[in-house]
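User: Hey, my collaborator sent me this sequence without any context and asked if I could get a structure. I don't really work with proteins. Can you help?
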Amino acid sequence: MITGNKIPVGIWAKAIIDWIKLHLGWLFDFFSKGASSFMDSVAEILNTVPPIIFILVVAALALWRHRDWKIPAFVTLGFLFIWNISLWDEMINTLVLVFFSTVVSLLVGIPLGIISARRKWLWNSVSPVLDLLQTLPTFVYLVPAFALFGLGMVPAVVATFLFAVAAPARLTYLGISQVPTALVEAGESFGCTRGQLLFKVTLPAALPSIMAGVTQCIMLSLSMVVIAAYVGAPGLGVPVVKALASVNVALGFESGLAIVVLAIILDRILKQPTRRRRVKKA
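Assistant: No problem. I've predicted the 3D structure and written it out in structure-token form, which is a compact way to encode the shape of the chain:
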């Protein structure tokens, strides 16, 4: 029988995690305590800011970026709604979690996409790994993250990073690969070095695709907030889990709607601004 000779994949994985905890556990504990205290400090600082001040600052940033009153108006109404249903502190914690998860994902994903676009053999090796990270169920990431980092924001950031890093890596690679060859050759003909060619020609041409990867990374990070609550991460996922445990429909609907509103706010603020061209009258 085929089931009589089971491949011990789970035992191998457990052995690897046990070995890491035995020999490198001190390093993971040190990193977890330092990063957790830093992120908690950031969340505490933001929670001390009066909500009305926070709303006005974000709305002003949205107006500066888009030059359109509709987006700041929606940002203001959305934040006022979250404040009204008493989920403001949870929303701030969610923003901190999404911010750090996105920063780590971009610091890894964008350089990986740039290097892979220059070395096709590297992309052929990295692409299956990214496929695996995007295919695995999100709860699977929590097991090794919890085993190595314990409870709190750190395992949530690690799990979210593994889930979201594929988006910036893929879209950066796609954007750079689709830069017209004539544009690159023109830069080379003007004597650009490899660094100048990257930062002054290739990256500006690939910027729309890279920004799409940034936005998608933020949305994927935000989609993990509920899952992150299972490893002790604060945020809007906590009331969702409480509502599920107690079958509290009202709390579940309010917290779920707050996540949706926050996702729309971030998407509207971060999307590419549309500039209207003024037509000159003859």
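In plain terms: The chain has 13 helices and no strands. You can pass these tokens on to your collaborator as they are.
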